Amino acid sequence: MADIYVDGQLGTGANNGTSWVNAYQGEAGLQAACDAAVAGDILHITRTFTLTAAIDIDIASGTDGKPIRVIGYNYNSGSLVVDGTRAVVDANNVAANCVVVNEKNHWIWENIEFKNATGSNLICNGDYARDWFFINCISHGSVAGDGWGPGTDDFYDCRFFFCKSYNNGNDGINIYRGTIFGCTVNDNGRYGIYGRKTTDITNSVIYNNISYGILSETGYESVSIDNCVLNNNGNAAIYTEDITYVLGCRITNHAVGILGDGSATVFNFWNFFKDNTANTSNITDIYTFRGEDTRITSGVTGYADINNANFNLMPDAIGRRKEIEI
Amino acid sequence: MADIYADGQLGTGANNGTSWVNAYQGEAGLQAACDAAVAGDILHITRTFTLTALTVSIDIDIASGSQSSPIRVIGYNYNSGSPVVDGTRSIIDADNAAVNCVAANGVHYWVLENIEFKNATDDNVTATVDEPLYWTFINCISHHAVADGWGETAAISFLHAKFIICNAYNNTGNGFKSHRTWNFGCVAHDNGAVGFYAWRSKLINCLSYKNVTFGIYLADDHCAVRNCVIDNNLIGININDIAPIYACRITNNTTGIAGDATTTVIDFWNFFKDNTVNIDAVIGSVISTFRGEDTRVISGETGYMDSSNGDYRLNRNATSRRMQVEL
Known about the structure:
The complex is a heterodimer of chains A (about 325) and B (about 325).
Chain A lengths: L2 E5 L16 E2 H11 L5 E5 L1 E3 L4 E3 L10 E6 L13 E4 L8 E3 L5 E4 L1 E4 L6 E3 L4 E2 L2 E3 L2 E3 L14 E2 L2 E3 L2 E3 L6 E4 L2 E3 L2 E3 L6 E4 L3 E3 L2 E3 L4 E5 L6 E4 L2 E3 L4 E5 L3 E4 L2 E3 L3 E5 L4 E5 L2 E3 L3 E4 L2 E3 L1 E2 L2 E2 L9 E3 L4 E4 L13
Parallel strand pairs in A: 1-2, 1-3, 3-6, 4-7, 5-8, 6-9, 7-10, 8-11, 9-13, 10-14, 12-15, 13-16, 14-17, 16-19, 17-20, 18-21, 19-22, 20-23, 21-24, 22-25, 23-26, 24-27, 25-28, 26-29, 27-30, 28-31, 29-32, 30-33, 31-34
Antiparallel strand pairs in A: 35-36, 37-38
Chain B lengths: L2 E5 L16 E2 H11 L5 E5 L1 E3 L7 E3 L10 E6 L13 E4 L8 E3 L5 E4 L1 E4 L6 E3 L8 E3 L2 E3 L6 E3 L9 E3 L2 E3 L6 E4 L2 E3 L2 E3 L6 E4 L2 E3 L2 E3 L4 E5 L5 E3 L2 E3 L3 E5 L2 E5 L2 E3 L3 E4 L5 E5 L2 E3 L3 E3 L5 E3 L1 E2 L2 E2 L9 E3 L4 E4 L13
Parallel strand pairs in B: 1-2, 1-3, 3-6, 4-7, 5-8, 6-9, 7-10, 8-11, 9-12, 10-13, 11-14, 12-15, 13-16, 15-18, 16-19, 17-20, 18-21, 19-22, 20-23, 21-24, 22-25, 23-26, 24-27, 25-28, 26-29, 27-30, 28-31, 29-32, 30-33
Antiparallel strand pairs in B: 34-35, 36-37
């Protein structure tokens, strides 16, 4: 299990990845590091990598017990530190993608910013990429594609922790059988989250996306959404074509809160609806628990500062907490 | 879409399921109601169905619901003859005679609410022959099975089942055992084997305690455990693959999280206390840092209200009651 070092802007040293002083350099260096990695390795990367072509991940997979990790560092004037500051992979409106994966599994990316691809910032081609984790990553500014998108195949069983996806031309996160936790997805050109196949979306904020905040697609089993804030997405907060579980969410300022295609059942429990033209439409709506309607449709929304996208709840917000006797 | 009525203890009326007065009666009536149901129907059931005459399970193997029109079975409080839905559960009692309370075979999209299952000589609720898909259990309890609370037969299990605020306890085998499941707000305790035995499953806001082997067993990939309390099991969580475990309270287990060299654990914002070992040293990879900081909390007050009586709410002194992460 090796440590491999990569610096997007280094111009000195041996360019062999053995230390920060001799780190792999720039775009070619990042590609070389990814090609050199084997299961259990850690790639330590810092500063900005400006691309002319996508970084291809098509050589090695991690394993269940030995993922390949890519960790972004704060350059910190040469005294590198992991503090959440992200290394940047910038497609610079030139490269079609920042990262293209082809059937390589078990990679974990932490503290990385992806931006400015002419297509999707990250895609999966060839065959699916399985068990990828993204932690504290950002994807934004893809011109014609997604923040995280499918290519010819999908990211599969992927997990997103405290990631952001915004201002992408198409969808924020296109996910297949994954987990999204604590993420922010906003201002994307189509859907915030395109969710399929038992994806679960929790503790996330999804707002200002042009079409749907979340699309739960048909034929891919059920998507579950709990404890999320969905605000001001263009057509609906959630559009569902299948059974969908929506629990403990705050769904505000939409034409329709939860919209179906006529074939969907929604388990609509403990959600707060406010300022939607219609709270639900065209779904089979199951919202009673122990004989009581669980929905809250009045009271103070209570976002701390909606104009600045601060969706923390003020003390007077209705439905801040719920407690259910078991 | 019809309403069908069944009463476990009614002895009068037409026994045709058209109203509470003429409700289907007893275990044969419940079987008849399940056989009669089609997509979109609602079975309203009340009181106790004791499975003594059939000495086999209620078989659900005739009709499926659909995505938009599930078949619902709703338990009612009998309420002195004026049945009402208030969370009181109708009871299917295998009476230590029937093999199962309910056996589902190849039918899909059923929703069971406010039902108590108990006393089967094997699993209380089981899947047989052909996997039942997309079942949802809401406010259901399963206890005192000789095998599992919710189980499988010959490796046929409920697939894509969802459990919302359900409870499995005092089963000789496992509490919940199913495949590609989503458990929300569920409790498993005092089971003879594993509390939650899960393949490709998500557990959210669940509680697992005093189970003899594992509180939670993640037998395959694509699992996640979030905001759960796992207390006083032999092993808190046993992982067989790669799994994120986050914002959990893992206490009083011999081993908090166990695995092997082929296991990766994303161990974020968990509170560990009074485990003999918090994390098994042989686990292949443990990732506990976020933005460069160790997210684990391993000291401070556990703060359960009254764990000896199963009350795991947190008091105000509890360490790490809440977390807030700047986005």
